[in-house]
Amino acid sequence: MIRFEQFTKRYPDGTTAVDDLSFEVSEGELVTLVGPSGCGRTTTMMMVNRLIEPTSGQILVNGEDIAGVDPVRLRRRIGYVIQQVGLFPHRTVLDNTATVPALVGWKRAKARARAAELLDLVGLDPKRYGPRYLDQLSGGQRQRVGVARALAADPPVLLMDEPFGAVDPVVREQLQEEFLRMQAAVRKTVLLVTHDIEEAVRLGDRIAVYGQGRIEQFDTPGALLGTPATPYVAGFVGADRGPKRLSVTEIEADDLEQPPVARLDEPAGRAAERLRAEGARWAVVLDTRGDLHGWVGIDELDGSGTGGSVGDRAHRMNAWVPVGALLKQAFGMMLQHDAGWVAVLDGSRFLGVLTPAKLHEALRRSVYADALGVSRGEVAFDSVADA
């Protein structure tokens, strides 16, 4: 969708902002450009809509060299979101959102209907927020309006320059989550500039780490955190890149242990005898369909003689996550509930438990898989120590 071919930007004073860069952004891909101030990431992005012209090289959007496209027409086909939002304070939220459709000739009713649809997509009720002015919105709400306006004419490409940088950390995380949800629905081709490696890792399908005017590594978040290409990249992503990788590594069924299981309707005494024979002190409690009900300890099964069922003594299971959740979410659940493991479910069906040792093993296996270019299931070692 966007292809950069040996493009360079050199200013009259001799400063080279970007130097002979080539890379490609696929259709529907979200690529984050990350690096320190002055490294060339914003310059790269602004050359896509010709707010800055390259000194040499080509930039193609959907196969078309943008040097031959009228800049105004080009910009109306590309969404643009900046940190300061850039909205019009004298216009309502709905009219701000409908700006670009109106500029490209949509009828007013159609433009406003599209604006209402986009406000709803970014989590703002158009009936409630559409008639408001910007001074009636919070910073986070203004950022949402900025994103909605950028999408209003349904552009194939979206450029975002520090879009969530002007809000507090809590709102920033909420906006990131909302944007990921929206991107999953609309699948735009996105270039997003940020200085925050955690934001780059969380949002990007791939990440371009800039040094001074050049890309040091262009890779997936997992590969970037697991195998930094240079000492510069390793220093930029930080010594805590291992914990950061928890936020990009999903739980898979092969990561799980199979604990002792007791059935909801099983007699308590019989279950206690079986667990004792297995040397187990507790069991996960499932119903007849294999759905998770809770857990029970052997002492509780023994505590009231042999009467009653396992279900009479079972505890509610609070520490659980769905399969496909991130390791970071599972680790957070362990800490939140002071648990030695979390249950992993497919819908309501119990798949197994993730323990701290298995979490560590999953993390290490994902690093090896990225380094070898294979799936995690193809990486095998007997224990964490063997890795």
TrEMBL record:
PROSITE patterns: ABC_TRANSPORTER_1, ABC_TRANSPORTER_2. Residues 2-237 form the ABC transporter domain. InterPro entries: AAA+_ATPase, ABC_transporter-like_ATP-bd, ABC_transporter-like_CS, CBS_dom_sf, P-loop_NTPase. The keyword Thylakoid does not apply. Gene3D superfamilies: P-loop containing nucleotide triphosphate hydrolases (3.40.50.300). GO terms for molecular function: ATP binding. Pfam families: ABC_tran. Keywords: ATP-binding, Nucleotide-binding, Transport. Belongs to the ABC transporter superfamily. This is Betaine/proline/choline family ABC transporter ATP-binding protein. It comes from Streptomyces coacervatus. The lineage of its organism: Bacteria, Bacillati, Actinomycetota, Actinomycetes, Kitasatosporales.
